[in-house]
Amino acid sequence: MIKTMTAVAASLLLAGAANAGTVFNVDALADSWNSGAGAGLDTGIALTAGQAFTVTAGAGDLWSAGALPRWSNANGLTGNLFATGTDESGEAAGTLIGQDFGIFDGFAFGELVGQIGNGAYFAVGTSFAGAANATGDLKLFYWDSNFADNSGSVAVDVSVVPEPGSVALMLAGLGIVGGLARRRSKQVG
Questions:
Q1: pTM for this structure?
Q2: Which top-level group of life is the source organism from (predicted)?
C-alpha cells in the first residue's frame, strides 16, 4: 500500500509540471506578427503574472523573411549569416543568406517575440528565461512588417515552473492521503 502511495505521489508531482517541455513549431508565415494584424501561435499554455517560464529555440534552426539575404534564426536579422550547405536555405555553403535589417517596432525583423494574454510584447529570440509580465495564454510570433513571402519555421521548447501555491496544495493533499493510508494500515495490522 505504501509503495502504491509513493507511486501515486510521484506521478502527481510529475503531473504538476504538465506544461514543462512542450514543443511547438512557430511558422514564419502563419504565425507572423504582420504589423499587428497576425494572430501568432497560441500555445494554450496559461501563465500567471510573475510565474517563471523558459522558451528556447535552436540557434541553427532557420526561417526566412523573403528573398536573400533574409534568413535568420529566432534572434532575427541582426547580422551576416552564411549558408552551411545543409541548412534550410538550400543555398551553397558560404552564400550570404542573412544580414542586419534593423529594428521594426522595437524588435529585430525575423525575431521570435512573445505575448501573454493582452500584455506587452517581449523579445524571446533563441533563449528566454524570466517571469510572465501578464496573466493569460502565451502566444509566439515571427516579427515582421510584411508576411507574404515568409517561409520556414522554428521549433521552440516551452517550460513552465508550477506556481508555489499549486505545489504546496498538492503536497498537502498527498500528506493527508499518506496519513490516512498509514492510519488504515495500523488498524488492519
A1: 0.78
A2: Bacteria
